[in-house]
Amino acid sequence: MGEQKDRMLRGELYRDNDPELVADRRRAQALVDRFNGTGAEETGERDTILRELLGKLGEGSWIMPRFQCDYGYLIEIGANSFLNYDAILLDCAPIKIGSDCSIGPRCQLLTALHPMEDHELRRQRWESAAPITIGNNVWFGGGVIVCAGVTIGDDTVVGAGSVVTRDLPSKVFAAGNPARVIREL
């Protein structure tokens, strides 16, 4: 493993134009293109492609096209979970989705971070990433955005259009921008 990929996986600043990372993204893009090009009746082919692309796909889980990701191998999905149309998972750090989750259409899970204070590092395209962890039996309404470094507890529901910028505990309903706990479930 090269230095930049190692730095990315450790959550340190890294350069995404590293040839190894570019090759990994191209491999993922080729698989994503194949997946997104399948017909509605090609569920077996979709499953085969996802199992080659993702780090883990639990039994009974499925994703609807269009699907986008950076690397694929950093994504783990538990059993019986569903990602609806147009999911975007920027997996520069691990993304773990538990079992029995329902992810609404056009949701985004975004692990990538860019320097805020150091403008020159940002101009030079340095970045970092922080993992996203989603518990079991979580439901996201359409258009939910989950930011880097967030953990969401089991049995939590996040309302449509919410932007989750910090951790959410188990068994709550949260909504808004930024998302806040509305009530316990």
From TrEMBL:
Gene Ontology MF term list: acetyltransferase activity; O-acyltransferase activity
Q: Which domain of life is it from?
A: Bacteria
**Which residue intervals define the domain Maltose/galactoside acetyltransferase in the entry?**
5-59
SMART domains xrefs: Mac
Q: Which SUPFAM superfamilies match?
A: Trimeric LpxA-like enzymes (SSF51161)
Q: Which ranges form a coiled coil?
A: none
Question: What UniProt keywords apply to this chain's record, in alphabetical order?
Answer: Acyltransferase, Transferase
The family annotation for this protein states: Belongs to the transferase hexapeptide repeat family.
PANTHER family found in the cross-reference section: ACETYLTRANSFERASE C18B11.09C-RELATED, SIALIC ACID SYNTHASE-RELATED
* Name of the protein in question: Nodulation protein L
Q: What is the phylogenetic placement of the source species in the record?
A: Bacteria, Bacillati, Actinomycetota, Actinomycetes, Pseudonocardiales
